[in-house]
């Protein structure tokens, strides 16, 4: 019952539908074909990229914390890191609109893997909504 109320609250947030539409477009844009080995190879290529957060305008302010987030690290560690520094989530959301595809793919993979490993990571986005972060 609590989860349904939380879901209703999220859906009632201004801009929720447009945010979901943008997310669906990003997912479709970066969707790989059904060849599992090719998907695994692409996933590994994305994980092997290490963004230099200092070199991107959107992430300069929190680059030190972002350097501690590891795409191939445990979800609980990354979740704690982001929740402990919630402004990092805003930087990540800003970075998703960058022209350079590699850090964007890295962030999308980070969030995707975190959510697959530990569904409680959705709470990061709930905290973001509470703190008026444009997710």
* Largest sheet, strands/sense/barrel: none
Q: Mean pLDDT, rounded to whole units?
A: 85
The coarse overall form would be globular
If you compute it from the alpha carbons, what radius of gyration comes out, rounded to the nearest whole angstrom?
15 Å
> How many strands?
0
The poorly predicted ranges are none
What sequence of helices (H) and strands (E) makes up the elements?
Answer: HHHHHHHH
Q: Considering DSSP H and I runs of 4 or more, what fraction of the residues is helical?
A: 55-70%
From the helix content, strand content and strand pairing, which structural class follows? mainly alpha
> How widely separated are the two ends?
24 Å
Taken as a percent bin, the fraction of beta residues is under 5%
The tally of helices reads 8
Description:
By secondary structure, the chain is mostly helical. It contains eight helices and no strands. Helix 5 crosses helix 7. The model has no long low-confidence stretch (mean pLDDT 85).
What secondary-structure arrangement, pairings included, does this model have?
Blueprint: H1 2-12, H2 16-29, H3 36-48, H4 63-66, H5 75-84, H6 87-95, H7 101-117, H8 122-130
Helix pairs in contact: 5-7
What would you say about this model in short?
With 135 residues, this protein is mainly alpha-helical. Helices cover 64% and strands 0% of the residues.
Highlighted features:
135 residues; mainly alpha
């Amino acid at each position: 019952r609590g989860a349904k109320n939380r879901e209703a609250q999220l859906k009632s947030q201004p801009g929720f539908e447009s945010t979901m539409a943008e997310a669906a477009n990003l997912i479709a844009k970066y969707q790989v074909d059904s060849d599992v080995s090719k998907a695994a190879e692409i996933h590994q290529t994305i994980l092997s990229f290490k963004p230099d957060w200092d070199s991107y305008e959107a992430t300069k302010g929190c680059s030190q914390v972002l350097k501690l987030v590891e795409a191939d690290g445990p979800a609980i560690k990354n979740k704690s890191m982001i929740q402990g520094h919630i402004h990092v989530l805003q930087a990540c959301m800003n970075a998703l609109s960058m022209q350079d595809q590699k850090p964007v793919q890295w962030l999308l993979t980070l969030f995707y893997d975190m959510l697959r490993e530990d569904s409680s990571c959705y709470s990061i986005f709930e905290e973001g909504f509470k703190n008026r972060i444009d997710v």
